[in-house]
Amino acid sequence: MEKVWPAPNVTSEFINAYNFEIFNVASACKSLIKCRPLMLTVIGCYLLSVVISHRAMKSARPMELRSSLLIWNTLLAIMSAIGFIRTFPEPFHIITQQPSGVYKAICTYEFHNYATGFWALISVISKIVELGDTAFIIFRKQKLIFLHWYHHTTVILLTWFGYEAYDPVFRCFVPMNYFIHAWMYTYYALKSQKISVPSVVSMAITATQITQMFVGAGLSIYSLHILMNTNDLCHRPLRNVFLGLFIFGSYFVLFLNYFFHAYFRPSKKTTSKIVKTN
Predict the structure, then answer these.
(1) Cα Rg of the chain (Å, integer)
(2) What span, in angstroms and rounded, lies between the C-alpha atoms of 28 and 23?
(3) Rounded to whole angstroms, how far apart are CA atoms 90 and 13?
(4) pLDDT at 7
(5) CA 22 to CA 113: how far, in whole Å?
(6) Could you report the per-residue pLDDT of 71-83, keeping only the tens digit for each?
(7) Is residue 142 packed enough to be buried (19+ CB in 10 Å), middle (13-18) or exposed (0-12)?
(8) Which residues of 92-110 are buried (b: 16+ CB within 10 A; e: fewer)?
(9) Alpha helices for the chain (secondary structure H)
(10) Which family does the UniProt entry place this protein in (predicted)?
(11) Which of 55, 65, 129, 273 satisfies CB 3.0 to 4.6 Å to 262 for a cystine?
């Protein structure tokens, strides 16, 4: 039986969709399914290019790229801020104003608006665009850690598979991610111009990243409970639940380890202590 995708609302009491945000949900999901091999190829090429370019830069001078970094980080910060403004009203309204709000926000399409679905799709596409973060690290000859490229590749899988199924949990994950990115890219835009930012800011952003991973794992555990132990309807595919549990769980452990080593273990001074993730 062919999957039936929901038809979101154009207008609602918490947010109204603009004309450019109204789109064919089923067509978008089917396009992602059709382009899955291309997505996997992009990930493979990304990993290969990381290895090749990292070796090639060993004998090269580090590049400054200050102007490019300012433009790159500023545009991503603005996009993330707009994405948060457009996606936050829906889960906030459902969780705070509706009975069984957490369940409805995670497992159902009730009160769903086109604006949320559109900016969730933009979020998926942006995960590929943000692979450019790694290029700046390599060309500037900064330290490229495992957490950085592991997060970049796995979050593409997580969001891509999620949108293929039009997973309702996206309405919770996307605004969290946009919120953190708005502050993270603003931080990096300032740092690229050598503007002094208090260390407590970077510490707060990293702590918020860890919180996001904890919440993501928690949503997966809650979804698994609904699917396995109750008779309540949940539109989340079991594959996505297990994938989310594994990926968010691994993020939580890796980010917590990074947080400890960056802020509480004596080490050489670094340019920044925030892991630039997407």
Answers:
(1) 19
(2) 8
(3) 10
(4) 87
(5) 9
(6) 999 999 999 999 9
(7) middle
(8) bbbbeeeeebebbbbbbbe
(9) 25-34, 36-56, 66-87, 89-97, 101-107, 114-129, 132-139, 146-164, 170-192, 199-229, 238-263
(10) Belongs to the ELO family.
(11) 273
Estimate to the nearest angstrom the gap between the alpha carbon of 160 and the chain centroid: 11
At position 71, the amino acid (one-letter code) is I
Predicted confidence (pLDDT) per residue in 93-147, tens digit: 999 999 999 999 999 999 999 999 999 999 999 999 999 999 999 999 988 899 9
DSSP 150-206: HHHHHHHHHHHHHHHTT-TTHHHHHHHHHHHHHHHHHHHHHHHTT----HHHHHHHH
Q: Are 151 and 277 in contact (CB under 8 A)?
A: yes
Half-sphere exposure of 127 (CA within 13 A, CB side): 27
What is the structure's pLDDT at 275? 62
Q: Which token pair is 180?
A: 């953190």
